[in-house]
Amino acid sequence: MTTPVLYLFGSAAPPVLDVAKVIEDAQERGFDVCLGLTPTAARWLDGRLPALAALTGHPVRSEYKTPGEPDVWPKADVIAVAPATFNTVNSWALGLTHDFVTGVVAEGVGKDIPILTMPCVNAAYVRHRQFERSVGELREMGVEVLYGEGGFVPNEPGRSRPEKYPWGLVLDTAERLVGSRGD
């Protein structure tokens, strides 16, 4: 059996700062991890990007490759988008592929790659009508959205608890999705 490849994509929300530990946990579970970040998340982790690339054994990506440039990552067996911000969730659901992360996951849906996401948004953002529409749209596309009961539950603005972000649920779900493929 080959090692399953997990594309771990993070947006600029406080839990992304713990991504090294998440990568280590995923590797302990048997995943080959490729890390992709939104441009803002990449800025947040800028000084740590070389260490994260060394940890994964793959370049950390936050930009599209140029035409003709070879792909430096193996093909994904599963994609996890976590933490997914308000912007990432809405852009993805609307098909707005202005950055690498949303472009890959939008295409991944069409390629039938198992995809999961766990938002990290505050309660003020989820009151915006588009957020629930976007969550529903992603679910209709077959994306497993870990939001609400049994997933991420938003906090009030200013009451961030990144240490409580349920990363284990993300990895548990990735394992289940890879196992359910039966490849």
From TrEMBL:
Organism encoding this protein: Streptomyces griseoviridis
Name of the protein in question: Flavoprotein
The Flavoprotein domain, residue ranges: 13-129
Stored InterPro entries: Flavin_trans-like, Flavoprotein
Lineage: superkingdom: Bacteria
GO terms for MF: catalytic activity
